[in-house]
Amino acid sequence: xxxxxWTILExxxxxxxxxxxxxxxxxxxxxxxxLADVLNVKRFDLYLNFNKILKISEISKYKxxxxxxxxxxxxxxxxxxxxxxxxxxxxxxxxxxPRPETELLVENVLDIFEKDTFFKFFExxxxxxxxxxxxxxxxxxxxxxxxxxxEYKNNIFIYGIDISQKALEIAQQNIYNHHAAENVRLLxxxxxYPLETISIQNKIDIITxxxxxxxxxxxxxxxxxxxxxxxxxxxxxxxxxxxxxxIIPHSKKFLKKDGYIxxxxxxxxxxxxxxxxxxxxxxxxxxxxxxxNLNRVMIAKRG
Length: 303
Ligand code: GLN
Hints:
This protein has helices at 8-21, 27-39, 43-48, 56-70, 75-79, 101-115, 117-124, 140-148, 165-177, 224-227, 242-251, 270-279, and strands at 81-84, 87-90, 129-134, 156-162, 184-188, 204-209, 255-264, 283-289, 295-301. The protein is of the alpha/beta class. The strands form 2 sheets. It has a 7-stranded mixed β-sheet, with helices on both faces. A two-stranded antiparallel sheet has the order 1-2. Helix 8 (140-148) links the parallel strand 3 and strand 4 (156-162). The chain starts with 7 loop residues before the first helix and ends with a strand. Bound molecules: glutamine (GLN). The site of glutamine has 12 residues, from helix 8.
């Protein structure tokens, strides 16, 4: 970077080339997201100001972010934020970076509220819905659901559970930023165990969970970016099923009859998760595919 006066377009082109040479997959996108972060504007605004000349201080800040990116740090950890379902979430290295695939899980919860007559019935009788999100991490799932179901805001309550205190601190900030404190409450602990202390048996309408589901032996071959994410949020045990095995039987105690459980899965776990659900008397099992046509979400009802 020898040049003195850089316009936005020039520096984006330079950085994109540089990232490409370093084998960064989304070179252009990453260059743009980081520059938007430095300039404190939306990515779209860069396009409206291509000929703007950057200040020396902006260039040096951008350079330091470029350096981090080529060291393998994901953009979300550099900019400390990530968009999910159109909302901006605070993200730090103690939480998993939200993936677009997880939007599918949220969409399916929203669909249940829109289409399921079971819920229509409760809506009429002004009942109260209780949802629980296990392995909540940054809180993207409960917060997005509460924002999208704003019409139910007086009769919906969502618990977000995580074992990591640091993750819950970030989730709490996200709850605050999204004004979701009325509807979302965080509990610390392992999977469903924190619910043992509140009398909530047979009362839950929907349980959601995007658990760690990567096989322990696959962790070492992950891309350098994924390796920066907390191992605790990725490691699904020897066969990737550790959390499904723990949660599915335990969930029966808390779900209402015909209440829903929705999991994100790794496509290769489909058969095994299906078996676990059937063994535990769940019914109406549905598998949803993601944008790449891979099995990604499983939905079932408690028997
Ligand atoms: N619920 C969070 C997410 O979907 C975190 C999941 C996890 O840590 N495995 O991004």
